[in-house]
Amino acid sequence: MSRLCVCLGALLALTTQSIGNPVPPDVPSKPSYPDVEVRCVDGSMLKLQLMDPKIEFRTAYGTLWIPVTAIRKIEFATRTPSDVSVRISKAITDLADRQYKVREKATDELKQIGERAYAPALTAIHSTDAETSSRAKRVVHHLEGAYTAAQLDHRPWDVVYTADSKITGTIVTPVLLVRTNQFGDQKLDMCAAASLVSAAEKIAVQLAKTPEAPVNLTAHQNERDKEFVFKVTGPDPRAQSLGSVWGTGVYTADSNVAAAALHAGVVRPARTVVVRVKIVQSPAQFVGSAQNGVTSQNYNSSYPAAFLFLEP
Fold first, then answer.
1. Which of 81, 100, 170, 192 is least surrounded, with the fewest CB atoms within 10 Å of its CB?
2. pLDDT attached to residue 125
3. Of 6, 3, 74, nearest in space to 38 by CA
4. Cα(267)–Cα(201) distance, rounded to whole angstroms?
5. Which residues pair with 125 in a beta bridge?
6. Which domains can be identified in the chain, with CATH numbers?
7. Across the 312 residues of the chain, what is the mean pLDDT of every consecutive 10-residue run?
């Protein structure tokens, strides 16, 4: 299980009053807590918000304070809790004990500890003590059969990705302050974390993989009931180049897709989003309307096909 400890804190309210005419206090802006998804070393996933405004990050060239809103992804270094490190160290030593039972217990202990014992066991293979080396090989063989190569990979550094940088170093704090929907404010022990991906990064990856929407869907008008996924950038509704749109909710296949998406409210001007579109049978007629800065037109007849936007 991932290690989440309840974060206890108190809010201290400070009031000030100026001499003479009182000055209205500044209203603090609401803090922005970025949404992230954390993959834990046990394979579980956590959806959280990062509450630390910045992360202290030590590199070979000095210490950085990275705003959490700038972080797209983190690949966490392999961290072993201190109590587990003590157990591993003792077990490695006990592999050479004179008593057979102690050696057997130490071997089983390393297997039970799991992937965190892999790197120390690999090192122990090169021991000058034959018994230690032999038992360490048994432990390594067991762990390689029980875990994937990715799980056994020992990562010495944290790697932080921003929109334009990849930075290698060490996150100084042992915990991250986070907020969860179910348990409120918590502390995430980084020994439990394998990786972190921000919502912004997931959207960026999805956009990179998604094709641009065509100008219209006339090329697909014979593919009734078929669904498509496109990325659409919301046009400026005041632009003279705004394409024509016929209908409301259901649009003629020759309607401009981007303008129709703006009219339907699935995209905002200058924003790029992923939309799902479905080709449907044309209604008997299309009724225009004014929505979201776009005025669509009437079409008093059916059309070879129509389309509508689905929930993402």
1. 100
2. 97
3. 74
4. 19
5. none
6. 32-77+155-204 (no CATH), 82-152 (1.25.10), 210-310 (2.170.130.20)
7. 35 32 51 88 91 95 95 95 95 96 97 94 96 96 93 93 95 92 90 93 89 96 96 92 94 97 96 96 97 96 97 80
Give the C-alpha separation, 73 to 94, whole Å: 40
Give the number of C-alpha atoms closer than 13 A to the C-alpha of residue 271, restricted to the C-beta side.
11
DSSP 3-state of 103: helix
Q: What is the CA radius of gyration of the chain?
A: 29
User: The tokens of 145 are what?
Assistant: 């059969």
Residue ranges with strand state E in the chain: 4-6, 35-40, 45-50, 54-59, 62-67, 73-75, 158-161, 166-171, 175-180, 184-189, 193-198, 227-233, 247-248, 250-252, 272-280, 290-291, 294-295, 306-310
| CA angle (32 as vertex; 273, 24 as ends), nearest 5 | 130
Q: In the numeric block, which tokens belong to residue 33?
A: 């807590």
Helix axes 130-146, 100-113, angle to 10 degrees: 30
Kindly report the pTM of this predicted structure. 0.65
Which of 312, 162, 305 lies closest to 247, judged by CA? 305
Determine the Cα–Cα distance for residues 233 and 268; give it in Å rounded to an integer.
Answer: 8
Place of tokens 């799991």: 114
Q: Is 150 helix (H, G, I), strand (E, B) or coil?
A: helix
Distance linking the first and last C-alpha atoms of the chain: 32
The two structure tokens encoding residue 193 = 């974390």
Residue 264's CB is within 10 A of a number of other CB atoms, namely 21
Which residue's structure tokens are 């790197």? 119
Render 260-275 in DSSP notation, one character per residue. HHHHHTSS-BT-EEEE
- For 11-49, give the DSSP string: --------SSSPPPPP-PPPPP--EEEEEETTS-EEEEE
Burial class (CB in 10 A: 0-12, 13-18, 19+), 48: buried
